[in-house]
Amino acid sequence: MKTIQWGVLGCARIARMQVVPAILRCENARFAALASRDPSKLAEFQSLFTAGPFTAHASYEALIEDPVVEAVYIPLPNSMHHEWAIRAMRCGKHVLCEKPLALNSHQAAEMIQCARDCGVLLMEAFMYRYTDRMRQINRVLDSGVLGKIRSVNSTFRFLLDRQNTIKENPDLGGGAMYDVGCYPLNLIGLVAGAEPISVAVECDKPHGVDINLSAVLRYEDGLIASLHCGFNAFGRMHSEIIGTDGMLLAPDTFLNDAGQLTVHDKNGCQIIAIAESDRYAEEIRDFSAAILEKRSPKLGLGESLSNMRTLDRIMVQVQG
Known about the structure:
Blueprint: E1 4-9, H1 13-25, E2 29-35, H2 39-48, E3 55-57, H3 60-64, E4 71-74, H4 81-90, E5 94-98, H5 105-118, E6 122-125, H6 132-143, E7 149-159, H7 176-192, E8 198-204, E9 212-218, E10 224-230, E11 232-243, E12 246-251, E13 259-265, E14 268-274, H8 279-293, H9 301-319
Parallel strand pairs: 1-2, 1-4, 2-3, 4-5, 5-6, 7-10
Antiparallel strand pairs: 7-11, 8-9, 9-10, 11-12, 12-13, 13-14
């Protein structure tokens, strides 16, 4: 089987703990190169990932210019997504970019246009969309059992117990909305299938970034959605989708572990079992297959741009 040669920009925690191991589990992908400006981090990766040789580059430029590399994964700080995705795509590389795709819709639109001009694939890395949990949520929505959707409430928060992280640095695109709030926003956008006609935001930002945020989104068809995010309190991850005929409860919405969904409708209560998933590997596998098969991956750029426009409307209130 043909394999896509992957390069990773930076030694981010998510790359070390999730994405590089996922690449190694995929039959159509190979971990070919890593770039870091820190020699000690390169050495750490070389000691951790010994299953197959990879090229260690001392600069990001060297990796994106490496002729062996076909696809680049970008787990850099949010403020660097726009620059390095465009630079990689101009070198002919396909790009899987961590969420959020960019800091605003203007940057996202430039990235999308660059992908089209260069004839390469670009995707925002919402790995939760590759879980059995999301497959079952989509199945329930497609069945129509919930009726007309009137309310969506989604929460993703955790207690940040590490000091001096990029999550609290405004210059690097820190803040709860960019970090975890984009997950509920993505889910709400998927369910609504449209952009809101109004957005109202309340947040707490003691150090220049939002650490606790709630937003209410109202849509033309009458749907009202709420999202909640933060990293200043006990962890909570839960979503509910309520329609005229039923309600879907989705605990641990964005995780890949086994669990269950609960559907309440006129026929009573139904429990739907959720199988454990390998979300990062499924994401890498799909993106690699999309390159090989010359097709689009699971997450479309139109969806990402639409969500970025809504994110703009949230962040203008946060930053204002």
